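Give me structure tokens for this 125-residue protein.
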Amino acid sequence: MPEAARSMLKQHVKRLVVTDPDGRLEGVVSRKDVLKVFARSDEEIRREVAEDVIRGMFWIDPAAVRVRVEDGVVHLHGRVPTRGQAGLISGVVARTDGVVAVAGELGFDYDETHGRAGGTGPLGG
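Here you go.
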């Protein structure tokens, strides 16, 4: 379902056709059907991302990363210790129930892929 929601958002469609492996029509899924699965408030999502992901999984002070959620889109802004963490955080957040997309910029103090300090970009990239 998360993939369906992301696809609908990205393609700006209100319905998706569902087919079996042979391409035969199985049904049609509406945006409303998909969003029922994600019936979580933006505040619930924000709390899970800040507390369970940023603090709980990555042991990063939530004050270092500002988390804002609007209509299921999570906006991350701040700085984390490494470039790898910036990418991993984005990936974990994207797979969190209720999240439709992840946006923002995460800076990092150390780029372990190039052995140098500092950096910023879309989610640490």
